[in-house]
Amino acid sequence: MECVIVDGEVLDRTVAKVDIEDRGYQFGDGVYEVIRIYNGKMFTGKEHLNRLVESAEKIRMKLPFSTEELESKMEELISKNELDTGIVYMQFTRGTSPRNHVFPASDVAPTFVAYTRKVARPVESMEKGVRSILDEDIRWLRCDIKSLNLLGNLLSKQKAAEAGCFEAILHRGETVTEGSHSNISIVKDGVIITHQADNFILNGITRQKVLEICSNENIAFEERAFTLDELSSADEVFSSGTTVEVMPIVEVDGKPVGNGEPGPVTRNLQNLFKAEIE
Ligand code: PDD
User: What is d(CA 193, CA 170) in angstroms, rounded to the nearest whole number?
Assistant: First the structure.
């Protein structure tokens, strides 16, 4: 039996139900998180749960559970489903009430759903590197919120997939922001450059982990917006995210990055990141 959680209750997935007037379903009115599971344990779980609370606050939603309660519920789910390597997905919506753009009354509780999934580490792609396309970032101006509204991201990712690519690198005019489902960094003359954490990007937990590793290992980095020109003349490009870890990007819009192979700075980060998850 595959277990899921709906509103705090652990259920068999086949009997779990959400109302058709749930605001997540109708408006995308909610927030979510994806947490990596390695060796049956959440990796950077607290950081993800804190971001979930922050995302909820930013959309003026109060979560009915504390981060400690959420953590223990997730642990229960992971152990019930005997998950070793994978992800736990969780989302809160603003609850179920007759469709109305105005928020429901305060007695309407948020809907909480969580499930686990087996997901292998993308070992082969991380070894070889992946291809990408460029796409205009057409999303709203609060990309710092991990909101259920992902249409802009989906349209870009679909375009990438149809071009046989793994990721779409998004840009607002000349400025590179992030990927459709990951953060983007470039390497120039040994320095890692990645967009600063502001309203134009999701401040990835993996991104933060990578920067923490850089600080500890004295690897130079700059948190600032970089341009499409800087991207095309970068020595290395990589994507980072919960499921993709540290992923070398070896091609952008058909043009090779550097010599077209994963570079030494990205390789070093991959090894240092691996040491963190083991
Ligand atoms: N995506 N930017 C965007 C737009 C993302 O969707 C993600 C993650 C990231 C990286 O964040 P983190 O390192 O915290 O996973 C950056 C998740 C995994 C998803 O939607 O599936």
Answer: 15
